[in-house]
Design goal:
Radius of gyration: 17 Å
Pfam family, one: CEP104_ZnF
Number of strands: 4
Order of helices and strands: EEHEEHHH
Largest sheet: 2 strands, antiparallel
Shape: globular
Protein name: Centrosomal protein CEP104 Zn finger domain-containing protein
Helix content: 25-40%
Structural class: alpha+beta
Length: about 140
């Protein structure tokens, strides 16, 4: 009798680093002033993006991000399957992750790419085509 196989562990997709913040004369600013006006996830440039406004964009507006419905952490949609199966501490998340496939959008279940989707595939699905189940819609560039 064979021993049961362990389920394969998902490798985390690459994650974009958040801009490093530095404190200058009592105010936090980004190391690169340009990044204050630019969303690193959806590419939106907006001169009204102060650091607090950019945080609000991440939490409420960016179409490349979504809040985990289990733990409420804001996650890149491209990493949501991995987050649910490996990172989220809420037990029901792992159960939900078993129903998802890594090549499909966790929001609409549409196929994002043949094989493992790359960053450009997610951008096409979420920003260009616009995922029909993304409540944040597409980013106005």
């Amino acid at each position: 009798m064979r021993a049961p196989r362990e389920p394969a562990r998902l490798e985390p997709p690459p994650q974009k680093a958040m801009p490093e913040m530095v404190e200058t004369e009592g105010q936090e600013t980004s190391e690169d002033d340009f990044e204050e006006f630019w969303c690193q996830f959806c590419g939106r440039e907006d001169p009204s993006f102060t650091l607090p406004a950019l945080d609000i964009h991440y939490w409420r507006e960016c179409p490349m991000l979504s809040a985990c419905k289990h733990c409420e952490q804001v996650i890149e949609i491209s990493r949501l399957h991995w987050h649910l199966s490996e990172e989220c501490e809420v037990r029901e998340a792992a159960i939900e992750a078993r129903r998802l496939q890594p090549d499909r959008c966790p929001l609409c279940q549409g196929r994002v790419a043949r094989g493992m989707p790359e960053e450009r595939d997610w951008q096409e699905h979420l920003l260009v085509m616009g995922c029909p189940s993304n409540p944040r819609g597409r980013s106005p560039r």
